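User: I've been trying to design a sequence by hand for this structure and keep getting stuck. Would you show me what you'd pick, starting by listing the structure so we're on the same page?

Assistant: Good idea, let's start from the same input. This is the structure you sent:
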């Protein structure tokens, strides 16, 4: 088995430094052009919801175990309700979106954080005006 010393690696890199730098700059220029001219801009709005009673409604600021379990089970139910046509139609009507409910439902991503009472909702679109309307 042949060994290569660090000195030999250094000389190989030194000999090919022009090629290495050329490939680096070519890659940077090509990726910049592709991202500017080919790829579409995508905007995203997201929010996080917590299922359960507000702190003001709790007695002595204590959360009971049964209540916590019920809330964790409700998270998946609420996550599915968010994706329904009825909810999509209400969102479309409230903020006057130019989509039908099926298109809006494709743009919505609902993530349930396992074993918690937290739901994360994200909406992506190529039109920044739509995202701004959703954030209000």
């Amino acid at each position: 088995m042949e060994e290569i010393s660090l000195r030999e690696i250094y000389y190989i890199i030194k000999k090919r430094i022009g090629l290495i730098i050329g490939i680096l700059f070519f890659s940077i220029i090509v990726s910049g052009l592709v991202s500017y001219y080919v790829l579409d801009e995508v905007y995203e709005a997201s929010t996080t919801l917590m299922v359960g009673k507000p702190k003001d409604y709790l007695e002595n600021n204590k959360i009971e175990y049964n209540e916590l379990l019920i809330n964790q089970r409700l998270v998946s139910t609420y996550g599915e309700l968010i994706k329904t046509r009825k909810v999509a139609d209400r969102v479309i009507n409230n903020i006057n979106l130019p989509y039908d409910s099926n298109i809006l439902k494709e743009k919505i991503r609902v993530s349930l954080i396992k074993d918690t009472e937290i739901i994360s909702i994200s909406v992506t679109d190529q039109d920044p005006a739509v995202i701004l309307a959703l954030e209000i």
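That's my pick for every position. To get oriented when you compare it with your attempt: The chain has two domains: 6-37, 43-135. The two ends are 67 Å apart (CA to CA).
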